[in-house]
Design goal:
two-stranded antiparallel ribbon; 2 helices; about 130 residues; alpha+beta
Length: about 130
């Protein structure tokens, strides 16, 4: 596995503690993006800043890119609200806002090759990104 983050050197075969610490430390103006890539090139990435993030998952075979959502949306944000990242603002749906601690759980599950947390569901973005 390879853990990469904005402005930081990559970490080969990171520990779960390293993954969690990096995700929980995301801040705009410092590190606001992280990804964890497996040996096959599949990855989970997230972007954001305390306390919120957006989570995406890409599988290469077959090519599929998904964004995480949850059944219980965050009522504070409406569809189209933007999360700030070092790469710019990203428009999200109300149910796509996750706390950084939830993002850390998703990356830790991916690292362990476990199932993702039960509250995380995936919405395809493959066509939206022009990948199909």
């Amino acid at each position: 596995m390879l853990l990469e983050a904005e402005g930081q050197p990559p970490i080969v075969d990171p520990s779960e503690e390293q993954v969690r610490a990096l995700v929980l430390g995301l801040r705009v103006g410092e590190t606001s993006f992280a990804s964890l890539t497996d040996e096959a090139g599949n990855y989970v990435q997230l972007a954001g800043s305390r306390p919120w993030c957006v989570i995406e998952y890409r599988r290469l075979k077959p090519l599929q890119h998904d964004r995480a959502f949850q059944d219980t949306p965050t009522p504070k944000y409406k569809d189209g609200a933007k999360i700030k990242t070092g790469a710019g603002d990203i428009s999200l749906r109300q149910d796509e806002w996750f706390l950084l601690k939830n993002g850390a759980e998703v990356l830790a599950a991916f690292l362990r090759k476990d199932r993702f947390p039960a509250n995380v569901q995936w919405r395809s973005m493959t066509e939206t990104l022009g990948l199909s």
